C-alpha cells in the first residue's frame, strides 16, 4: 500500500500523527535544514500498511466537511476575562484561562504549547494551574508535537476531561489519529497566521545574546505589558537581571512570510471551517465589531463551532465579559485564505545558509523607508 510522501513538504504540517500511528515505529520525526519537523522512514521496519497515509490530516478526505455545525452555524463573540489580572497575563482576552480553569476544576488535564527554555516550543500536558499558565501567551515558532497524541489518547481512555489546544492542523491531526469521537475531549484551535521556523528564532536569540554580551533567560514574543495589546514587539530578558532587549526584528521576518513552513502556504484550514469545538485568537477588527471592548489591554475572538463548544462557553460566561458580534466584521486574513508564498522565499533561505544573522536582520528585519512612513502615519491617525 502507498505511504505518505516525505518529500512533499507542502503537504505536511508536522503534527506527528503518522509517527504516532505507525505500528512498527518505522517513522521518526526529524528536524530539516530549515528547522522544521518532518517524518522520515526506516524502510527495514516499514510494513507498507498505509496507516500513515490514512491518518495524514492534510489528505482531502480528512479536511472537510467536519460534523461541527451548531444549530445555525458558527457563533462569534468578543470576550474579555472579568479578572484583569488574568487578562494581563494572557496574550489576548483570557478566554483560554477560563476554558482550561473549567477543565482543571473537573479533575481534567490540559494540553497546549509552552516554551522549552527560550529556543524551542513543545506541546505539554498540565494537570495544575501552574502547568497551564506556562501555555499562556503567544509563541511564534513551530511547536514540537512528538509523543503527545498517545498521551492524549491514554488520558481520554481513562474518562477524565481533556482540553487539547493547538493550531487547526494539530487539532485535525489529533482527531485523525484518534479515529473516533470522545465526549470528554474539548478541542480548541487558535487563529493561526502561519508557523515560523524555530531555527530562525533560535538564531535570532543567539544574535541578541552576542550583541548584548548576555544570556537570554526568558522571552515574550509579544510584550503586551510594556507596549500594549495592539503592538507586536518581542522582549528578551537577559541573565544579569537588568538587561531587557525589545524590538521588532523577528516580527518583521515573521510577517515577511519567507520563514513560514511550506504547508502554511497551502493550509486548508484558513477559513471559518475549523476542526475544533472553539476557535480563539486576538480580535483584530474589534474597533468596528465591539468598540467598547477596544481598550488596548486585550480582547479575544471566540468562534463557537459545535454544541460541545457552546456548552463550555456557556459554563465560562460568569467569569467573562462578552458580546455577540457579526462574523462578517471578524474575518481577519487567516480566516479567509492562506498567505501566498513569497516569490523570493528560496532566495531568503539560500542567503540564510551563507549570511551571518546580523546581515539577515538588517535585510529582512528592518523596515523600509516606505513602511516606516506608513507606520508613522498610522500612529498619527490613532492619536487623532
Structural overview:
34% of the residues lie in helices and 20% in strands. The chain has 384 residues and is an alpha/beta fold. The chain has a nine-stranded mixed beta sheet, with helices on both faces. The protein has a three-stranded antiparallel beta sheet with strand order 9-10-11. Strand 5, helix 6 (129-133) and strand 6 (143-144) form a beta-alpha-beta unit. The protein is globular, with a radius of gyration of 21 Å.
What's the gyration radius in Å?
21 Å
Overall spatial form: globular
- How many distinct helices? 16
Count of β-strands: 14
Briefly note the structural class of the backbone.
Answer: alpha/beta
Largest sheet: 9 strands, mixed
How much of the polypeptide forms β-strand, as a percent range?
A: 15-25%
Largest sheet: spatial strand order:
6-5-4-7-8-12-13-3-14
Q: Kindly state the percentage of residues in helix.
A: 25-40%
Distance between the termini: 64 Å
Indicate the low-confidence ranges by residue numbers. 64-71
Provide mean pLDDT, rounded: 91
Question: Which series of helices and strands comes N to C?
Answer: HEEHHEHHEEHEHEHEHEHEEHEHEHEHHH
Question: Which tags fit this structure?
Answer:
single chain; nine-stranded mixed beta sheet; three-stranded antiparallel beta sheet; 16 helices; globular
